TrEMBL record:
Sequence ranges assigned to domain (S)-ureidoglycine aminohydrolase cupin in this UniProt record: 42-114
Pfam family, one: Cupin_3
Gene3D superfamilies membership: Jelly Rolls (2.60.120.10)
Alphabetized InterPro entries for the sequence: RmlC-like_jellyroll, RmlC_Cupin_sf, UGlyAH_Cupin_dom
Positions of the UniProt region annotated as Disordered: 12-31
Signal peptide: none
Name by which UniProt lists this protein: Cupin
Taxonomic superkingdom: Bacteria
SUPFAM superfamilies registered for this protein in UniProt: RmlC-like cupins
Length: 118
């Protein structure tokens, strides 16, 4: 067994069982967004890594966890309450810290890779 896990975000994810989801109904603002998540790694200590994508829509988000992400394709708008919107496009990388509250709006189907620590 190797201690290196390699995954290509634009590669074949067929070996990973995707999870489908959507925002909770009480958080939905507009649209009918549908999520697909390929959770590639689940490590001790509450660390997760994988690929996430969503169809267009807008919903409220609240983060209790820490997340690093890299936008692979699409266009989304992330807005923290009381702050200016951040337009997210391919190549954009951000960290969201615990305590973030705001909205996530997918304008054009968005795909990102992520690392989350609970």
């Amino acid at each position: 067994m190797t201690n290196i896990l390699n995954f290509k975000p634009d590669g074949d994810l067929a070996a990973v069982q995707p999870e489908d989801g959507a925002p909770a109904p009480d958080r939905l603002i507009s649209g009918n967004p549908e999520f697909t998540t390929w959770n590639i790694e689940e490590a001790t200590g509450g660390i997760y890594a994988g690929i996430w994508q969503s169809t267009p829509g807008k919903w409220r988000v609240e983060y209790d966890e820490w997340e690093y992400f890299n936008i692979l394709e699409g266009h989304s708008i992330l807005t923290e309450d009381g702050s200016n919107p951040i337009h997210l496009k391919a190549g954009d990388r951000h960290i969201i810290r615990p305590g973030f509250k705001g909205t996530w709006e997918v304008v054009e189907m968005t795909r990102k890779d992520y690392v989350v620590r609970l």
